[in-house]
Backbone:
């Protein structure tokens, strides 16, 4: 069975890994440059063959100020859902995402076809594969960009040694301080600010785009591919595993 993955960021390469481990022929099409892993990003679980089970470190999460103040800074509204409640104050295991991504990059680099894909090329891609798992930002392959809504919040993530204690993440809902999250993860420090202080990235919120989703074999994966909140890199791994298994059953391919 052939699986074509669009995008070579952490989500795309984890999906490619899942498909290959399941015995599929894998093709990757992407604008070919390694993604920058900005901000407080880490793997929330061990991935067999990609992370070392013992390479996790415990990360302490703490909060100052209020949940409403945090939501207002991040999304401009006190009612907006955020990850404030997902992480209680305490310690959580974290695996290094950068190291995992570097390992995936080494495995797949030679097989990434350097190509920018646009919406009307998805048909052609699907004509040559059994499954297409797209992690490229959904807006980039939307066929109705003038009609479909893509809500996102611009962010400004700076490398800044504000937090010098290793493996500490601070959520800041205090008024009068512009930054809302600062972290030191595996020795790398960063601070996230709302966009009024300049933007160097964005957080997808939601979309009503349904382009290509009615095409058999086409699936969107990853936070940018699905264009929604709360999507972790490892969700792309598990989604790819599930999609491949389902397709194998449907095609009568041996599991
Ligand atoms: C502030 C922030 C913190 C986060 N923290 C975490 C965390 O701690 N843990 C976690 O698991 N997740 C986290 N996430 C969610 C998300 O999983 C990560 O941001 C992750 O690094 C995104 O990887 P990706 O592969 O989905 O996207 P990207 O790394 O952006 O990859 C997209 C790929 O698509 C390619 N591409 C784009 N357009 C095209 C096109 N038209 N044609 C071909 N190729 C194209 C790009 O070149 C790139 O290779 C966080 C997100 C944000 C915004």
Residues:
């Amino acid at each position: 069975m052939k699986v074509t993955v669009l995008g070579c960021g952490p989500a795309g390469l984890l999906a490619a890994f899942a498909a290959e481990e399941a015995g599929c022929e894998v093709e990757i099409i992407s604008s070919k440059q390694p993604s920058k892993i900005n901000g407080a990003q880490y793997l929330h679980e061990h991935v067999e063959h990609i992370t070392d089970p013992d390479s996790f470190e415990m990360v302490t999460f703490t909060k100052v100020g209020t949940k409403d103040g945090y939501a207002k800074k991040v999304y401009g509204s006190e009612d907006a859902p955020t990850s404030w409640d997902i992480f209680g104050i305490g310690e959580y295991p974290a695996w290094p995402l950068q190291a995992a991504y570097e390992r995936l990059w080494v495995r797949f680099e030679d097989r990434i076809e350097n190509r920018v894909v646009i919406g009307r090329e998805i048909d052609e891609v699907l004509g040559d594969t059994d499954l297409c798992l797209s992690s490229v930002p959904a807006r980039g392959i939307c066929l109705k960009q003038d009609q479909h809504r893509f809500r996102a919040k611009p962010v400004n993530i700076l490398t800044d040694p504000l937090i010098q204690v290793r493996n500490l993440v601070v959520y800041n809902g205090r008024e009068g301080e512009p930054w809302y999250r600062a972290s030191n993860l595996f020795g790398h420090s960063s601070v996230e600010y709302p966009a009024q202080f300049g933007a160097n990235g964005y957080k997808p919120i939601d979309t009503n785009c349904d382009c290509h989703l009615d095409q058999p074999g086409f699936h969107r994966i990853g936070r940018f591919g699905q264009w929604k909140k709360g999507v972790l890199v490892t969700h792309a791994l598990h989604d790819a595993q599930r999609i491949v298994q389902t397709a194998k059953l449907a095609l009568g391919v041996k599991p």
In short: The chain has a mean pLDDT of 94.
